[in-house]
Amino acid sequence: MADGEVRNKQVILREYISGFPKDSDLYISTEKTMPLKVPESSNGVLVKNLYLSCDPYMRLLMQKPEGPALFTPYTSGSVISGYGVAKVLDSKHPDFNKGDLVWGTTGFEEYSLITTPEIESLFKIEHTDVPLSYYTGILGMPGMTAYAGFYEICNPKKGEYVFVSAASGAVGQLVGQFAKLMGCYVVGSAGSEEKVDLLINKFGFDGAFNYKEEHDFDAALRRCFPEGIDIYFDNVGGKMLDAVILNMREHGRIVLCGMVSQYNLDRHEGVNNLMRLIYKRVLMKGLVVFDYYSLYTKFLDLVLPYIKEGKIVYVEDIDEGLESIPAALVGLFSGRNVGKQEK
Amino acid sequence: MADGEVRNKQVILREYISGFPKDSDLYISTEKTMPLKVPESSNGVLVKNLYLSCDPYMRLLMQKPEGPALFTPYTSGSVISGYGVAKVLDSKHPDFNKGDLVWGTTGFEEYSLITTPEIESLFKIEHTDVPLSYYTGILGMPGMTAYAGFYEICNPKKGEYVFVSAASGAVGQLVGQFAKLMGCYVVGSAGSEEKVDLLINKFGFDGAFNYKEEHDFDAALRRCFPEGIDIYFDNVGGKMLDAVILNMREHGRIVLCGMVSQYNLDRHEGVNNLMRLIYKRVLMKGLVVFDYYSLYTKFLDLVLPYIKEGKIVYVEDIDEGLESIPAALVGLFSGRNVGKQEK
Questions:
Q1: DSSP secondary structure string, A63-82?
Q2: ipTM value of the model?
């Protein structure tokens, strides 16, 4: 190791995968070293990563890139990337200084050189009177996703019927709480009794069901929403989306945020009920959170007071150490995690 | 026959159908008679029907009613209904007088008693310096459908790429011409060489293809839109919709207007590519023209001058006599008709 260099532990993608990910698809490498200075030629920032976030979209980057992508695809045999909270150790970028706390896209490693902070949407953390880890969740990308999808796309009104799938996840738990604060009736689906209990007793959902115990999603939705659904925040796609469409009310809105039920399939399931979108004049729109990052300050102005007053709660699942990442990421797809998953 | 009564020829639905309709599913009855006066107890209008319109949605009313419906379902063994142009023979309704020309939902028969003109959206025809038959098409429900879908839902901009399916039909031909007038690049699909020729040489589309000659809709669309599609006006659903989704550009818009490819199927085809709506932030919205009838005057103000200046042309397929209706209606599904189909 040269002077001023440190060993940099990294999470490496072994090979591109198909189907369900396994813990062994990722491994920890301690081979690399790096200097703790931004190189002369760069105007980036060098950070120490404090919290790294495991999010469902990362599964899509673990396969061979094909078609359009929203994130820089992973490379077989290289370090993976994702959202994190980090501390700036050195900066040649005018917007960031040594000592700043930031959140945004970073490497899944101890130290990262972020060469283009503008492109990676690196945000400076201004409010540190909340847990820093929140900036990987409720106050970061998932929080902005919930905010943009619910308020900007769904245009919710008091008294409307709201359904959220994957509702105990980072995005879903916040959507449900936003909906309650708006005076909506909210039901969520999740994949275990423990999560169903969390939805009702922790997040204040009006109803919840364990989708793994339901043979007929249409029947489950009719039971939970005898009057139908005005707003569906879709995190899962596939058969659940198809069943929700059957239960939409006139002028309903569906925000397509993720399709986690489909990410491990080679061919996505067909959705057969789109004709109902005509009968019911339903709006369906795909959401990518980047498009709404200009609203981040407005979002914080809404959410920070709610958090401080205890009107919004947040459940995280935090493990210690980079070594815990492979299992945590894989756990997102087996339902092992509860709440937001971080290292 | 009592005094003041006339024989009333009617088009009757023999029995509820499934699958493709046949001419023999409908028959002409001359059994009924009716008085040419609005009954004392009613505040409706009595009309003589002049033009009756065969539209694809009517297929949906020919099957046993199930789930949500936008129109009053047909009854086995009774007269069918649809859009028409008619002359008021007698009225007890304050908004209509004897001699008025009107368009709206009426019976498929020589004379109809329209008991609730408000509910049936009966419009008085104020401009008679265009062919009256236009009020079943370009100046009636299909015209308003094209207008609402294109301008109100799709929010088109100059230079955008627009695709229209069933483009030679009543709605499609107008959408294409609106798009050209807006400065868009427009391609249409249709089901014969004759229709493809019409699209390019009569309606001024930039491109067109015969979907029956294409094995791979995705490849056909990539050929026609190397830069992708900004706006899709969907009249057919199914496999074409699925292929279009693959070719949508960022922030594209899809208006779901009809799914004529699916109406004769017991179970609709699955659409597998919805994940692309997320990647590309696409908006998809179901359109029901009733919701936009308040814009009818605004619509006429736009379209009438275009028609008079020859900037919008319109192709109708008119047959003589109620007897022609069964074949005309069935023809909509075999591609026999060219342009708008009326009796």
A1: S---S--SSPPP-TTSB-EE
A2: 0.91
